[in-house]
Specification:
alpha+beta; four-stranded antiparallel sheet; 12 strands; elongated
Amino acid sequence: MIDPEARRQGRRWIRVAAAFAAVSLLLVLNAVLRPFDPLPEGAARIPTSAFGPRDLCTLEAATSPVHGTLHGDPTHTDWPVWLSRPAGHVAFVEWPHGWSVRFEPDFELLNERGRAVAWWGSEIVLTQVPLESAAGTTDDPYIARGIVLGGCYG
């Protein structure tokens, strides 16, 4: 005969394991389904990171932040948005999760809420992204995080 206390303990562990499995499944589904988030009308996907909005951001600034002029081209389907840096260098950036671009009627960089936050030729300074943190190439892009165009991203 199984001790009633041992039976209760066993049931408790089963509930804990089931809760852990359910949370794990939700996290996996969230990661898998994120690329299918709906886009604002007329918008195109751009490379984004997993970092979404946060409630708190530090004010720590990079000593040499990434900065450049916003440019893009709808024919560059893999990387339609980039920063033109001084001396003609190009810097590729992964924007926060949910961001996109709209090319018509005007070029607009859209945040996760679909609100335009920058336009063609806008000067962009990623104040918390140091130049030395990446090469700025498509293989090693800068990750826009911290305070980015009026939002805080994680």
